[in-house]
Design a protein that fits this description.
Helix content: over 70%
Order of helices and strands: HHHHHH
Number of helices: 6
Number of strands: 0
Shape: globular
Keywords: Signal
Distance between the termini: 50 Å
Protein name: Lipoprotein
Strand content: under 5%
Number of domains: 1
Length: 151
């Protein structure tokens, strides 16, 4: 049991390190590389506000120090990201439907991977969760950047 707990803490530590590398810098994703014909359209206040909220929660997730703050902090930050993503997706879907759908698939994969890691923590499930969350954070961040460029 102690080995599983150590693996969980180590895996979550690696996850946070991976997430801390994610930012609004140069990222390549389906969201940023898609040819959205409405990219020049100015964003609505609701979309711009929810983009800001999502960017903030993504940054907070990356800043979680699992070893010092515990897994509850990580879970709280992940829950906030999920909530902010849901609002942003609703607000942005009319203009960015293909991009939102693509990132939603990443969000669903991340949720499934986190649930798998929570129910059976192993090096494999934690690595899969880290990979899935990193993909979601990267692609959600790229979509936020795309939307913010119209605000």
């Amino acid at each position: 049991m102690r080995t599983a707990a150590a693996a969980l803490v180590a895996g979550l530590g690696s996850l946070v390190l991976a997430l801390s590398g994610c930012s609004s810098g140069d990222t390549t994703s389906a969201a940023s590389s898609s040819a959205t014909s409405t990219a020049a359209t100015s964003g609505s206040p609701a979309v711009c506000a929810s983009a800001d909220s999502l960017r903030s929660s993504l940054s907070s997730l990356a800043d979680v120090q699992v070893v010092q703050e515990g897994t509850d902090s990580l879970q709280a930050a992940w829950t906030k990201v999920q909530d902010d993503w849901a609002q942003f997706a609703d607000d942005a879907r009319a203009t960015y439907s293909d991009d939102v759908d693509s990132v939603q698939a990443d969000a669903d994969a991340a949720r499934d991977a986190v649930e798998a890691a929570a129910s059976g923590a192993s090096a494999q499930t934690l690595a899969a969760a880290g990979t899935a969350i990193t993909a979601f954070v990267t692609n959600a961040g790229a979509l936020v950047d795309e939307v913010r460029s119209t605000c």
